[in-house]
Amino acid sequence: MKKPLYTTAAQEDLIAILHYISRDKPNAAVSWVEKIEDKCLLIASQPEMGELQSKLGSDVRCNFVGRYVIFHRRHEDTVEILRVVPGDRKITKL
To answer: CA-CA distance, 86 to 11, in Å (whole number)?
Structure first.
């Protein structure tokens, strides 16, 4: 299975999600990040998965895990995970 390529911003997003959830539920925090990473692996194996988000850039797509949105695009022979953010954030400002 292909592995996704995470941008620095996406890696920071995952750390922020882990810290945010762990304030109230430390065990759930690890579980959520694992779910997100599992979805990223799935996306890497199926790069056309998700809705096109042309207003965000060429070939940018999005997928959801709970309230979190994974933004990604095909990058050479893998998938680049651009950002992982809560769905209620103003995406165009990122």
So the answer is: 14
Classified as helix, coil or strand, 61 is strand
Q: How far apart are CA 69 and CA 87, in angstroms?
A: 6
8-64 residue pLDDT tens: 999 999 999 999 999 999 889 999 999 999 999 999 999 899 988 888 878 999 999
Cα–Cα distance for residue pair 73/62, rounded to 1 Å? 9
Starting at the earlier edge strand, list the strands of the sheet with 61-65.
5-6, 78-86, 68-75, 61-65, 51-52
d(Cα 25, Cα 93) in Å, to the nearest integer? 29
88 versus 19: the higher-pLDDT residue is 19
Q: Return d(Cα 58, Cα 34) in angstroms, integer.
A: 28
pTM exceeds 0.85: yes
